């Protein structure tokens, strides 16, 4: 999670790209959990 938090804090990535890193049904190979997503950006994760 530390890489994704750093990248988000540096504004190297946005919420849309961060969503692609979340483990979910559509993306079983993601790297962060929905809870970590919320910790990083402050928004609830909703799968698309």
DSSP summary, beta strand count: 0
Q: Count of helices?
A: 3
The major β-sheet equals:
none
Q: Mean pLDDT score, rounded?
A: 95
Helical residue percent band? 40-55%
Strand-and-helix sequence, N→C? HHH
> Structural class, please?
mainly alpha
Radius of gyration (Å)? 10 Å
> What is the terminal-to-terminal distance?
21 Å
Low-confidence stretches: none
Question: Strand portion, in percent?
Answer: under 5%
What does the overall shape look like?
globular
Organism: Clostridium oceanicum
Protein name: XkdX family protein
Give a summary of the structure in a few sentences:
By secondary structure, the chain is mainly α. The protein is built from three helices and no strands.
């Amino acid at each position: 999670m530390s890489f994704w938090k750093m990248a988000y804090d540096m504004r190297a990535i946005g919420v849309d790209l961060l969503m692609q890193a979340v483990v979910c049904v559509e993306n079983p190979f993601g790297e962060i959990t929905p809870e970590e997503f919320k910790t990083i950006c402050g928004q609830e994760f909703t799968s698309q």
